[in-house]
Each structure stands twice: as structure tokens, then as C-alpha cells.
Amino acid sequence: MKSLIPLLLCMAAGSPLAHAEQCAMGAVTESSMRLAGYLRSQAASSFRVRCDQAYNIRFSSMNLTSSNGDSYVRNGAFRLATRMRIEGANKNEWNALLSPRTTGRDNKFAVVVELEETPTVSTPAGIYRDVVYVSLAF
């Protein structure tokens, strides 16, 4: 059984258009993270934020169940528990405005997902999904 977690990056701008300052997200390593069908399998994607002003970043998920990254992948009514981790931010807190761990104009972030539930023989085959959202406020 293979699980699929598509990673969707969304950017929200909070800066007036009159300023010449810019922020951009890019260099995404994986737009779809694929978990193997066994306990503790992991998948990750990283990206860069280039910004010439202070900004905050928010990580969220369609199936998020807690601020520490507990979530699940879903195939219809069937679910498998996952745990997500943020790297590159000042803390691992989901659905909250965070700051980059280091100051500067070019910061790297990563989202790591781990399967927390063992698929069994009664777990239906199929594509199990979650969507991760990343937004910037500047």
C-alpha cells in the first residue's frame, strides 16, 4: 500500500503594493511527498523563502488535528495517523505565525512527515492524502 501526501504551497501577501520590497517562495524539492506503507516511514520537502523584509510564516494542513503536527492521511473514510515536523522555523508549531530560525534574506524550510500508524492487512489499498499549506505574512 502506498500513501501520497501532496504538498501545496500557497503564498499570502500582506505588504502594500507601493513598496518595492519583495518576498518569494521557490526551490521546492518535492511537490508530492510519498510515504511507504509501513510504520515510521518518512517523506520530506524543502523550499526557500527570499525576502528583503521581516516576515512570518504559517504551516497548516487540511487534516491537522493538533498544533504539534499531528495529522492523518485519508482515503475516503479510512485514515492513517501521521506526525509532521517543521524545520527552519523558530519552533515546530502548526497553524501559528512563526519566524525564520535565522535572520537573513534567504531562508530554507522543510516539512517532514512520518507515518505514525501501522497499516494492516485490513487497511484498504489506495491513495491516502493530506495537503500542507504554507503562507507568508509580510
Please give the share of residues in helix. under 10%
Largest sheet entry = 5 strands, antiparallel
By DSSP (H or I, 4+ residues per run), the number of helices equals 0
Instruction: Report the mean per-residue pLDDT as an integer.
Output: 87
How many β-strand runs?
9
**Rg computed from alpha carbons, rounded to a whole number of angstroms:** 16 Å
Q: Tell me, briefly, the overall form.
A: elongated
Quote the distance from N terminus to C terminus: 41 Å
Biggest sheet: strand arrangement:
2-4-8-7-6
* Spans of at least 5 consecutive residues with low confidence: 1-7, 9-19
Q: How large is the share of residues in beta strands?
A: 35-45%
Order of helices and strands: EEEEEEEEE
Q: In terms of structural class, how would the helical and strand content be classed?
A: mainly beta
Topology:
Layout: E1 3-6, E2 23-26, E3 32-35, E4 42-51, E5 56-61, E6 70-75, E7 78-87, E8 106-115, E9 132-137
